[in-house]
Amino acid sequence: MYLFTRYRFNWNEVDFSIFSTYSMITNLFGTMVSVCVFSHILKIDDTLIGVMSCLSKILASFVYAFSTTTWQVYLAPLVEILNGTSFIAMRSIASKLVPTDELGKVNSLFGVCEALMPLVYGPMYSGIYAATMDTVPGAFFLMGGGLTAPAIIIFM
């Protein structure tokens, strides 16, 4: 992401750190709103919250990939505001489906998968970025959105 913003928008480390902080704050706010309002107050089903989270990620990938100005990049975290909720929805669904004595094993499996995914996705995104940097620098965002699409089917 840093290399993308540096190449596309001529950002320096300070510009990127401000954006990164803004992105984390919007993600935290969106997760809190999603859990508090959608789940507890409105009683929306976890599967629907998971679908909304995945759609938020997919839509934001298009905003990131095709943004040409700084304000468009700053718009993307607002579009992606519900993205953090998918992890919570997955764990919530699993805790309701799995017997209580198996819950520790399921949470361990989630933890291992979440720890291993950067080993797969990091090099893949780097390779895609390096291969498409001169033509479509945001292609790795589109790939990320495409890889999120099966999760919508799984949640449904």
UniProtKB/TrEMBL annotation:
Stretches that traverse the bilayer: 20-41, 48-67, 73-94, 106-124, 136-155
InterPro entries linked: MFS_trans_sf
GO molecular function: transmembrane transporter activity
Major localisation: membrane
Location of the protein in the cell: Membrane
Origin: domain of life: Eukaryota
Any Gene Ontology CC annotation: membrane
Keywords on record: Membrane, Transmembrane, Transmembrane helix
Membrane topology field: Multi-pass membrane protein
PANTHER family, alphabetized: FI18259P1-RELATED (PTHR23507:SF1), ZGC:174356 (PTHR23507)
Descriptive protein name: Adenylate cyclase
Species the sequence originates in: Diploptera punctata (Pacific beetle cockroach)
